[in-house]
UniProtKB/TrEMBL annotation:
TM stretches of this protein: none
Keyword Transferase: yes
A GO molecular-function descriptor: methyltransferase activity
Keywords carried by this UniProt record: Methyltransferase, Transferase
Protein name: SAM-dependent methyltransferase
GO biological process per UniProt: methylation
Amino acid sequence: MQKGTLFLIPVPLAENATQKSFTPYLIDTINAIKTYIVENEKTARKFLKEAGIKTPQSELLIHDFGKHKRGNSLVPYFTQLMSGIDVGLMSEAGCPGVADPGAEIVSEAHKRGIKVVPLVGPNSMLQALMASGFSGQSFSFHGYLPIDKVDRAKRIKELESLSEKNKQTQLFMETPFRNNHLLEDVLKNCHGSTQLCIACNINGEDEFIKTMTVGAWRGERIDLHKKPTVFLIYKG
């Protein structure tokens, strides 16, 4: 029996950013699919509605892959795919599988010989890199840094050294309610000449993206509390 295709469907990064995020192909795709694997059913249904899905939501089959469901068997998520039915995979925001637990679903799809098709859409890391002015030839994304203040300070210094040694842009992030603490530690532990880009609430109405030296940032007052933010450093 022919297997279905797993479509990776990007989700807008911010409120009121839907029209910045859609492509005609994405809209055609969601209107051809009735089964989804999602990180958050409520936000997934909202996105599908805003994207213009014509299928009644009552007819959709939504598999919840939220944090309380992970660690269980993946078999139920692949019943339709193995039966020849196409399925869409959606993150809470941005691209599935990138800094996202959906990577586990994608990995299993490859093991099962299921075709995986990534759709074009918003990605905070790449958009931040594009807007930073830093090297796009060599870069590394590190996800979340250690929560412990001592370990985090050590890691920040390591990333700065890596950037200088390899001429490589270093990207990282934090849980939004801890952004200000992370910024404080970056400004405290990096050299004043190191370049720092702060990309906050990308695609949102209050989007803020700015690059300056750490020394210049030390004279600024900025509040990143509860705002999705990507931090980039570059010491060329």
